[in-house]
Amino acid sequence: MVTKRLRLPRLRISFLAVSLAMLGWAVGCAGPQPMVDPYFAARTYTPARIALMPADVFVVYDEAGANDPRKSQALGQQVGGHITSLLATNLQRRGYQVSTAPGWDGIRTADGQYAVGGQELGGLANAILQFSGSPAGGGEGRMAAPAFVAPELASQVGAATQSDSVMYFNLKGVAVSPGKRAAEVAGVVFFVVIVAVIVLLIVAESKGGGSSRGAGPVASGGGGGRSVRSSGWRGPAATGGAPATATTARALTPAPRGYGSVPGGRGPVYGGPSVGIGIGVVVPLDGPAHTHEGSVAEDDEFFAGDQAYVSATLVSTYDGRVLWHARQSIDVALDRPADVQRMIERLVATIPPSLSQGAAPPAPPR
C-alpha cells in the first residue's frame, strides 16, 4: 500500500511534464504567423469587398521512377480550382463580399470590353511576388513598417471590380503518390535488412578469428540526383488583352483619414506599371521564391513527403498597401481535397473579419 501511494504522485508529475513538453513542441512547430498591417489589426480600416485573383498553383506529383508531367498538371488544375473556390467561400464567411471577375486574360466590363488587361494582372501578380520574396515578406505579426505593391495596378483592379482590396494566392508543392510511398517503405525495410546483414557478418568475422573474407560490395538504393520541374496551372491562357480602360467608377466609402496615398519615405513600393511578366523563370520548390508564369524545380529525393509553400497577400486598392500577408511552409497532402480545405480554412481564419454585416454562407461539407 505504501509503495502504491508513493508511485501515484510521481506518475502525475511525469504526465504533467510530458504534457507541457508536447505543448511546447506544438507551439514551436506552428510556424510563422501571417503579417497584418497595424491599421487592419486595430480595425481602423477594414475592407468590405475583395477582388479574388485566380490561384497560381504549381504542383509536382512525385511518383516512383520518372514523374508524369501530365499528372502534375492535372493535379495542379484540380487544386487550383478547388483553392479559388475555397478562398471565396471562406472570405464570405468572414463577412467579405467577394468578386471573382479577375481572370488571367483580364477583367471585362458588362459590354465585353477589357477594363484591365491580362498583362496588367500579370504585372500585379509579379509585383506581389516581388514583395513576398523579399526579406520584408518573411516577417510575422504586426508589420513594423508599411509596404506598398504596385499602387496604380491595384487601383485599376479596384475600379474595374468595385473592390477596395485584392487578394493573390500562390502555391508550389509536391504530392507523393501511393506508389512512391510504398517504395519509400520498401527502401527503409531494405536498408534495415542490409544493416542487419552487415552486423551479423561483423559478428561472425570476430568469432572466426578476424579472417578477411570479403562479403563483396553492397549496393544501396538512393535518390535525389534528378531535378523535376512542374509548370503551373493558372486557368485559361492569358491573351494579353487590351490596355486598361477602367470604365467603371468606384462607388465605395473613401479610406479613413491618415490612410490614403503612398506617404513618401514611410514604406517601400514594390513593382509598378512597368512590371513585366517573368516567362520561363524556374524557382526551387523550397524557399521563399515563387513564380507567376515560370516553373518549379524539385530535387527528386527518394525519401520525400508532401509539402506546400504558400504565398497569400491582401492588398488595398486605394494605395497598394499590404494589409495581410502569409508566407508559410505547410505539411499538406495536396491530392486530398479535405486536407486542402482545412489548410485554406486555417489560413483565412487569420484574416481579421470584415466589419460589414451580411449573412455568412453555410460551411461546406467535409
Walkthrough of the structure:
There is one protein chain. The chain is α/β, with parallel strands linked by helices. The protein has a domain at about 35-175 and about 230-255 and about 265-350. The protein contains 7 helices and 15 strands. A hairpin with a 5-residue loop joins strand 14 and strand 15 (about 320-330). Helix 3 packs across helix 7 (about 335-350). It is elongated, with a radius of gyration of 26 Å.
Rg over C-alpha atoms, rounded to the nearest angstrom: 26 Å
**Helix/strand structural class:** alpha/beta
Q: What pattern of helices and strands is seen along the backbone?
A: HEHEEHEEEHEEHEHEEEEEEH
Question: Count of helices?
Answer: 7
Give the DSSP E fraction (strand runs of 2 or more residues): 15-25%
State the share of residues found in helices, binned by percent: 25-40%
CA-based shape? elongated
Main sheet record: 8 strands, mixed
Distance between the termini: 51 Å
Number of strands: 15
- Low-pLDDT runs of 5+ residues are 1-30, 182-187, 210-227, 235-265
- Return the average pLDDT rounded to an integer: 74
